[in-house]
Design a protein that fits this description.
The chain is an all-alpha fold. It has 9 helices and no strands.
Length: 192
């Protein structure tokens, strides 16, 4: 029905997004709720979600985390470089390093928001993986949470197998040779 103009009487001013698969939509809601809580509550909740995720979702989370690391290494959206030496080391984290990690995790959280807002498969995959690195780094910064980071990574790597299939599912394309190399990365600090 029209009213003396060429415009329709009612317009849909809101874009309708296609529905997401159930578990992914559930995880997005959980991540949104976690974002408003302090890290002391977010990390245990995220680790609990990982510990209770089905094997297929664990593969997707692992691939997303490894893709996020590749994104962090290959782009300069975060000023501080990925703490590779820390992820390969053992022992307590010194206070000056904790301060650097606090700055780094704040940058990661900003970058995660930017990636989420892009609404592309690549951005979504990197943002999902960023959540794992954010929880991992908070587990090193906050007292008493490092064991939860260890538990989370042990669970993630327990689903070793064809990660390339999970990569194709997550990013909707085949991995490049450089990305295949990242699929073998494991943070030794959390796998002791």
């Amino acid at each position: 029905m029209k009213w003396r103009t060429n415009k329709p009487l009612y317009e849909n001013k809101f874009k309708v997004k296609p529905p997401k698969p159930f578990f992914r939509g559930l995880m997005d809601k959980l991540n949104a709720r976690l974002h408003y809580k302090p890290p002391e509550e977010r990390v245990p909740a995220y680790v609990d979600m990982v510990l209770h995720a089905p094997p297929v979702e664990l593969k997707n989370l692992l691939v997303a985390a490894l893709f996020a690391k590749k994104t962090l290494d290959s782009t300069r959206h975060v000023d501080i470089s990925f703490p590779d030496k820390l992820m390969a080391s053992e022992g307590p984290v010194a206070e000056p390093l904790r301060e650097m990690l606090r700055t780094y995790v704040a940058e990661l959280e900003k970058f995660q928001v930017e990636l989420t807002e892009r609404e592309t498969p690549v951005g979504s995959a990197a943002a999902r993986g960023m959540a794992t690195w954010i929880a991992s780094i908070y587990s090193l910064i906050l007292p008493g949470l490092e064991q939860q980071g260890v538990d989370m990574w042990k669970k993630l790597v327990s689903v070793e197998g064809d990660l390339e299939e999970a990569y194709r599912f997550l990013l909707r394309r085949d991995p490049t040779d450089a990305e295949r190399a990242y699929l073998t990365y494991r943070p030794a600090r959390f796998l002791r």
